[in-house]
Here is the input.
Amino acid sequence: MEAPAPGTVERWAWDYVLATTLREKLLPSEVPELWEEAPPARRLGAPGRPRELRVVQRRERGRSLRTVEGRARALHTFFHHELQAAELMAWALLAFPDTPREFRDGLVRIALDEVRHMHFYARAIEGLGHHVGDFAVRDWFWSRVPACASPTAFVAVMGLGLESANLDHSAAFAARFREAGDEEGARVQELVGLEEIAHVRFGARWFERFAGPVEFEAWRRALPAPLSPMLMRGRPLQREARARAGQSERFLDELDAWIPDPLPPTDAPGS
Here is the structure.
């Protein structure tokens, strides 16, 4: 796969995804104004990883929010979620070059928002006496999102899925951090959750442009297997925030009530 031409927005996205230093992830270069003419679709399979970030396949134990280390570990996980989100916005810009320029401009803006959120989390982690890299990370988003074959699937997973769920999770974790006496950690969660509303609204608007009204079944069908609504919600749903982001009451009722289909019976015991 050939790299985009230097000095283009596409090259900026390419370089950000593949960057291998923490500095490049936290302080990306200025976004150019020049776009490539008729670029090909480029689907990067994996991001570059700074040496500070040790990637593991399973989540490590020790995330009790009653301890300073547990809260730092949780914030470190959220930092890495934001990094993956920033990278995947850049990934989508490269993967779907035939989408409207307005859509791709929006992906750049959201990627930069996610970078800003990384700084919030990095400062909060340092405030607890830890540093980015003290804990292992999982590239879970990267193991799922590149399965999106279309921009519709991408906004279904990221905007209407993972970022929507973050509206629920950030509120829940803010309450838990505050209960543990960590007001700064709670404040960061609330700020990120507030800013994510615009990202979810972006996903809802473009889902409607690409596929029609934001209806629950249409959205569910757009999720690439094995992803399901189960992973795209927290408890309780933040209905007010989700409504501000473009999700109807009916959509939220169906999301809240959704349960997976039961597994089919097996032919043999223990199979």
About this structure: The chain is about 55% helix and 0% strand. Residues 216 and 254 are 7 Å apart (CA to CA). Residues 9-28+51-257 form a domain with the Ferritin fold (CATH 1.20.1260).
